[in-house]
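Predict the 3D structure for this chain.
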Amino acid sequence: MRGKQKRASAGDIMGAGVVTAENSSKLLDVARTMADKKIGSIVVVNLSREPIGLITETDILRTISKYEQKFFDLTAQDIMSKPLITIPATADVERVEKEMKRHKIKHMPVISSGKLVGIVTTKNLVDYLGKWEIKD
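Done. Predicted structure below.
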């Protein structure tokens, strides 16, 4: 079949079950949620449920190493990455890849009509690209 094929968008490849934590959540609770749900990142939201930051597994590990016992006193807001780098659900996969490289990030929340609708990870990109067959 020849002709133009629609490029996949961030909305097509994202994980839709995005997990959030309020900015006032204790870091220990955030870490437990991530472990229980087997996820590599969690989006931090304010009281209005607007996404304002991101916490990754790496952020948690660095914080434990740096703060040790003080870790238990910290909240999501204390260590979240900000400003939050997001991408529209309509952005094509090429743009997603470029933005992730430019910002040196592996997790990017997806926004549609001003609302958080999912998250794209490098794994989502690799899984999508792995579906393409290379022809000689």
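The beta strands are 20-22, 41-45, 51-56, 87-88, 107-112, 115-121.
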